[in-house]
Structures are given as structure tokens and as C-alpha cells.
Amino acid sequence: MKCFKLTLAIALGLCFLAGATAEAQTAWTLTTGSGVTERYISGNWNTGGNWSGGVPGDSDVVTLPDQLNSYPDYVVTMDAQPGRARSLTISADATLLIATAKTLEIGDGTDQDSTVNGTVILAVSGSVLKMTESRNIDGSGEIIGQHNLAEITDAASEVLTIGTNLTVRGALKVTMDMVNNGLVWANDGTTIGTRDTLELFSGTPSGSGEWKAVRSMGGNDAFLLFSVSATGLTGDFTVGHANSMLHIEDDVDVCTTGDLTFDGGAIKADPGGSFKAGGACS
User: Fold this and answer.
1) What is the rounded average pLDDT for all residues in the chain?
2) By residue range, what is the domain housing residue 189?
3) Exposure of 240 by Cβ count < 10 A (0-12 exposed, 13-18 middle, 19+ buried)?
4) Which of 47, 75, 139, 161 is surrounded by the fewest CB atoms within 10 Å?
């Protein structure tokens, strides 16, 4: 009997170890100089020697650290597949640039959130930030779209939660459930064309954060477009500047219990669409 128990314990232990998911850490290490002149410098995500643990994979906790010795910010450019990470931590001194039509996938089946205090840029049509698990992204930085067909998306029915101090802005489309507890802002994200559209294309938008369609001074026209209904919002809306618009598509209903600040621009609801602010949402 004792032998049986020992064998069972060993078997269970082996099963537990086999089922565990290893966590790896990899941090940006590309530097120049030495001593007080040492600093991180810009380089390519897909070059193994730029990282402490090689090119990140889907089990890696990826860190772009604070700059050394108060030198200027640096940029990590991802322009080739694959781009994968379990989670991201981006310091205020760092920018992650998805420069071509490539996808960065975040998640590996574990519950690990990301922090963006710096900047993530989706630069062109087909630049994609993809959640393979439901995730929170916190921090005080920005995710910036620079093309109307840049995208934040998911693998299948994931939820992205935007932290209270994070901003998603510019020109891009969101094709997943997104809880906005921070700021989603349609503004000048690109110099391509004359109109920058931040579109809630699919999924269910929700949350207590702010929604803005406010054109940057001298920038392109700014459109905040709802192509899907969002009737459980509690944050404020702001529409400002003559070349800014909140646009609600056909048969789409958008309602928030928060306030509406209107300072120029336009609010347009297509046939069957509706927008309501400042009252109860049924």
C-alpha cells in the first residue's frame, strides 16, 4: 500500500510538471557606450542578439526597459514575422513600432497583463496587435494607429481591457470586445489621405472611459465610427473642431450615462442608428 501511494504521488507530480507552462523573461539589451555614456539604442525586434533571451516567443515576458542615464528614447521595430510575447512591459522611454503589415500576438494561455508606459505604433495597413487571450493593458502610455486599416484584434472571443490612464488613439479599427476604461481618441494618426478614422468595427465596446473625436490642430479630419452597438457605456463623449465627427452607422445604437461635450464638428446617425448621452440606457 505504501508503495502504491508513493507511486501515485510521483505520477501526480510528473503530471503537474508536465502541465506547467514555463515562463521566460527577455529584455532589450542593445546598447552603445559604456559607463555614464551607456544607453539603449534603437534596433530590430527580430534580431536575437538584441535581447537577453533571444527573439521573444509566446512564453516570454518581454520588457523594453527605462533608458539608461537619461538619454533620448529608443525605438524597437518589428517588421518581420513572427512577433509573439506572453506579455509586454514598455517603459516611458521606449517605443514599439510595428512598421510593416505584420502581427504581434500577445498571450499564451496564461493570465498575465501588459503595461504600456511608452508607445506602441501600428504604422501601416495590416499592422496588427492581436490578443490570443483576454488581457488588460495598463500604464500611462499610448497605442497609436497611423492607418485606417491598422488593427487591434483577437483570436476568438477575447476581451481587451484598457486601463484608466492608457490612451488608444489615431487611425485604426478595433475588431474585438474592448472595455475602455481609459481614453479612445480619434485624432490625427497619419499623413495618408485626409481623414483619420478610429472604427469600432466588431465586438462589443464597453467601459467607463472617455471617447473623443477631436481633430489635432492642422491634422487630418477625425472620425470616431461605431459600426457596432454599445449601449452599456458610462464614460463621457467629446466632439470638437469643425473637422471632427462622431458617426453611428445603420441600425447601430450607442448610449452612455456619461456626458456629451460638443464643441464643433458633427454627430451623425445613419438610418436606424441612434446616439444618447447623459441619461439611462435601456
Assistant:
1) 89
2) 25-277
3) middle
4) 47
